[in-house]
Write a structure and sequence with these properties.
Layout (H helix, E strand, L loop, with lengths): L1 H30 L4 H10 L3 H7 E2 L4 E2 L14 H10 L8 H35 L2 H25 L10 H9 L1 H15 L5 H25 L7 H38 L1
Antiparallel strand pairs: 1-2
Helix pairs in contact: 5-6, 5-7, 6-7, 6-10, 7-10, 8-9, 8-10, 9-10
């Protein structure tokens, strides 16, 4: 047993020595390579004469390198990390990944800016329409619910904001609040008229007009689902989700919330 174990250890030691010699030889050959300019010059020299002028400039002694990108570059935050790494090399670079990264940055900024401005202006107009913050917040609540449900539906369907369907955000803010404004004003009219159930009567009186206007708008955007362009199809689906969920919240949630607020106010 001792002899067999000793032979095994000697065999392992011999293989380790052999592997170390191979690694040492590789490192020696690697150290013997020319510096970066010399290595690039050697690579250019093996190219045909017609291609040398494309990849090397004798006057500026500059080289042009072309890199084939992996599909994993567009997963997660890999693209942004790659662009930051390339910027730290101190060389001039240009390509589709850089353009895409900048366009995505512009899109995110435009999305936040347009959505924020639209939400602020709509909120201001709704407040001026009712004159009280409680009713203004109540009128905007179906829009918030519909917007969140739209984002959830897009996530489930694997739809992300792109250069096409990004327009649905400010558009939904402007269109989605209309139904709530009509319902709340009609409830206020029924309340001032002294009706016993102003919330139910106001919601019932506005049901057909709101359904008609909302469904016609949804049909217009729904027609985009038949488009051949994927971006337009995603725009149609996003619009249907946003407008549909906002309509449901306006018809089902809003009258109940308005009645609950009135009961709370009378209790105070």
């Amino acid at each position: 047993m001792g002899t067999i174990a000793a032979q095994t250890l000697l065999g392992l030691a011999g293989r380790l020595v052999s592997d170390a010699q191979v690694i040492q030889g590789f490192l020696e050959r690697l150290a013997g390579l020319p510096d970066e300019p010399g290595l690039l010059q050697a690579l250019v020299e093996v190219l045909p004469e017609q291609l040398k002028e494309v990849y090397y400039s004798p006057t500026s002694r500059a080289y042009l390198l072309r890199a084939q990108m992996s599909s994993q570059l567009y997963e997660g935050d890999n693209l942004e990390a790659f662009v930051q790494w390339a910027q730290g090399l101190g060389v001039e670079f240009y390509g589709v990944p850089e353009v895409q990264a900048r366009l995505e940055a512009y899109m995110k900024w435009d999305f936040a800016w347009s959505t924020g401005v639209a939400a602020f202006l709509i909120g201001l107009l709704v407040w001026r329409s009712f004159g009280r913050w409680r009713e203004a917040v109540l009128a905007i609540s179906p829009l918030v619910i519909g917007y969140l449900w739209m984002l959830a539906g897009m996530r489930l369907l694997g739809i992300a904001f792109n250069f096409t369907n990004i327009v649905i955000s400010p558009l939904l803010i402007g269109i989605g609040v209309d139904s709530a404004i009509h319902i709340l004003h009609r409830i206020d009219e029924e309340r001032q008229a002294g009706h016993k159930h102003p919330h139910a009567q106001g919601a019932a009186a506005t049901l057909v007009p709101i359904l008609s206007t909302s469904l016609t708008t949804m049909l217009v955007f729904g027609a985009l689902i038949a488009a051949r362009t994927p971006g337009l199809r995603q725009l149609g689906i996003s619009a249907l989700l946003g407008l549909g969920f906002t309509l449901l919240a306006s018809l089902l949630f809003l009258p109940c919330a308005a009645a609950w607020l009135d009961e709370t106010r009378r209790g105070d």
